[in-house]
Amino acid sequence: MKDLIKAEWFKLKKMAAYKALFITYLVVETATQMNNISNSVVYPQYNPTYTGAEWLGKLQQALFLYSIVVFLFVALYVNGDFVKRTFYSGLLCGVPRKKAFLAKMVSALAGVVPLMLVPVLTGTVLWSIHAGFGMDFGVEAVCLVAKALGIQFLASLMLVSHAAFFAVLIKSRIGAFVWSFGTLYMSGVLQGNIGNIIQIPVLREILLFLLSVSYLNLGTFLAAVVLKFLAAGYIFERCDLK
């Protein structure tokens, strides 16, 4: 298992598409934050000014673009092995399906970490340069940074589990990305209007649970994430890889 993870990690480090995605995301996120800062100076009545600490507290504002990046990454990294039949070649070499899937997911989560840090670092650094960090660097600041990173990591878990499910279900890169993003977008629409759409409380709570929406407590949120990974693994073990 350890060797499989090392092989996947080596493949990820050599993946040109991953490097291109990371650089593009870094440039776009930097340009976005600089544009927000510029707008806060030119049109302060419409665009708030954040300190670095305030940006960390509002990090969820960057999740829309981040979700697109994660879905693209999973589609390229996981579905690329379906398209190139790398999974099938591995099975011919005696690699168990369960270990192959687990190694791929571990490596995918590791690959998401640098992407996860992009909005955290760019927003915090640029807004701090513009308006200051907003608090002294001490225990409170460390706790704020740790909380922001924890929330970002939980969001990453949800996004990867969501994308992994459609990756093994659909197998094509474009199809996996479209379904991942489309269903997440619909979940946001449902979250805001589900009270008007579904009148039965039990069904409403079950649907929200399956969608892993953020209002759930940590326990049920993680349970939904684990269920998606388990469902993806179950499908992977029984799907046709030829």
Explain what you see.
- With about 240 residues, the chain is an all-alpha fold.
- It has helices at about 1-15, 15-40, 50-55, 65-75, 80-85, 85-90, 95-130, 140-170, 175-195, 200-210, 220-240.
- It contains 11 helices and no strands.
- The two termini are about 25 Å apart.
In short:
Helix content is 81%, strand content 0%.
- The ordered H/E elements are HHHHHHHHHHH
Low-confidence stretches: none
| Strand percentage | under 5%
Structural classification: mainly alpha
Q: Using only CA atoms, what is the Rg?
A: 20 Å
For the secondary structure, the number of strands is 0
- Rounded to the nearest angstrom, the distance between the terminal CA atoms is 23 Å
Mean pLDDT: 83
What is the count of helical runs? 11
Q: Percent range for helical residues? A: over 70%
Please give the largest β-sheet: none
Quaternary state reads single chain
| Overall spatial form | globular
